[in-house]
Amino acid sequence: MQLNRIDWTPPERGRGEPRPPAQIRRILALFRPYSGRLAVVGLLVAASAVVSVVTPFLLRAVLDVAIPQGRTGLLSLLALGMIAAAVVNSVFGVLQTLISTTVGQRVMHDLRTAVYDHLQRMSLAFFTRTRTGEVQSRIANDIGGMQSTVTSTATSLVSNLTAVIASVVAMVALDWRLTVVSLLLLPLFVWISRRVGNERKAITTKRQKQLAAMSSAVQESLSVSGILLGRTMGRSGSLSREFTEQSDELADLEVRASMAGRWRMSTIGVVMAAMPAVIYWAAGLASAGGAPIVSLGTLVAFVSLQQGLFRPTVSLLSTGVQVQTSLALFQRIFEYLDLPVEIAEPERPVHLETVRGEVTFDRVTFSYQDDQERPTLSGIDLELPAGGSLALVGETGSGKSTLGYLVPRLYDVTDGRVLLDGVDVRELSFDTLARAVGVVSQETYLFHASVADNLRFAKPDASDEELVAAARAAHVHDLIVSLPDGYDTLVGERGYRFSGGEKQRLAIARTVLRNPPVLILDEATSALDNQTEAAVQQALDTLAEGRTTITIAHRLSTVRDADQIAVLDRGTVTELGSHDALLAEGGRYAALLHRESVPA
């Protein structure tokens, strides 16, 4: 969906930021908690490598001793030894796979939960400037794309490296001259693989960005709201075409990622496959016209070892390419993990066992990060006694919702303080704030779950009687029991089986169930018709008795009875008083009230 929206994008890595070696150390640190299991894998790998290089020596004994000398007993033992080596290697391989896959999946789990937990601690501002699809793509596509690397690469790396070392040692033991011939081209192969790895890494970065863009497009255009908007605006066809173009670009990137360096890597495979012929040719030339430089058994055993060397070497080179490719994925994950937490719990948080509900705004100033020059709020001074009610009114964009959201720390002040019972909310524990302040926002969010589950999100251990009492307080109980499955009825995606007013009343019931001493009502009755608004307002008035209530409203009819009404204009309080007092002044509040009462 083509929208004029500013999306958050991680900054480009600067000079002082971690380079690949530091990044690799950070990746290795992910495996540190599982070092014991990895040590077992290392032992299995070493044992497997030793067993693998024994087989060529048994083969040499078969060809040079047992068969020429007709020693059938020795031949049987050697044959059994070769079979036993294969069985032991298979067992070791299964155990390696089991342990390494378990470790890899635990690392994947740690990464997923670390990213999710870190994002849970981010401020509301981060999510207002970041597309939901982008966040989902980081957790699903990027971490999912690392699965093969995390689960098998470490074991493959150690296993193949050990096999290469063991094979080289065994080859030198058989004949050092043939070993030199075999290893001449390895430096060239390493250089080629590094080039291929860098190329695939660059393509992978582009591919993951494209995946994130597609995830965002799907999340936005195939949601209920997106479908409604697309069809009512006649944009369904254009949205399909835009998605087709994005998918086509992704397909092209996938092909490029798959084919990057494929011919060069294939060349390496061809050369390695031809090496046995080169060894036979070199041995034959050296032996021409004289005694052979090596026995037939040694030559066959050497070629067998050479194949045992080339297979893990090719695998090592491929693993190196895969690691370089995965660095792009790790970089995207680390970018999220390195995001600064703008709203963090203090090191020594204050816990309030009992909250009276006294709220004070002391010289409060607030600016969004992308608009520091124009404060959204400036120099706000308000005092709200426990059990009192404050209404915030003003034009759209005057800062009403932002001021209300400072109390539960959805945002933090840029300057000044917000106090709850005389304690700066930045010093309170998150648990205290969550218990003390309840918010009913103008955007009602319901999960795709039952009505009961949505209500119990506020209080998981709530009894059925408590659910009913909360629903009655919000004047929604009769509606719920009229549904086919009552409180077990699924609300549908984002609650779209309910009207706006019904969803709002469910949200109010959810807050009633939580029973907070401080209420923030952000347009809590904005979606209700006049009759329902009156009923719910009566329920809210009853709920507000003995509680501190901050009401954010455009419709001034809902705030006439507030103890104090603060009129905001461009982030400052221009008028403060009761309804009658402000009306008598004939200022901005009176003008707003007159505009509301006179039909346009």
TrEMBL record:
Localization (cell): Cell membrane
SMART domains in the cross-refs: AAA
Ranges where the ABC transporter domain occurs: 359-595
GO molecular function: ATP binding
Transmembrane segments: 38-63, 75-99, 164-192, 265-283
Residues making up the signal peptide according to the UniProt record: none
Membrane topology per record: Multi-pass membrane protein
Pfam families in the cross-refs: ABC_membrane, ABC_tran
Family matches, as CDD domains: ABC_6TM_exporter_like
Alphabetical keyword list: ATP-binding, Membrane, Nucleotide-binding, Transmembrane, Transmembrane helix
Domain ABC transmembrane type-1 stretches: 39-325
Name of the protein: ABC transporter ATP-binding protein
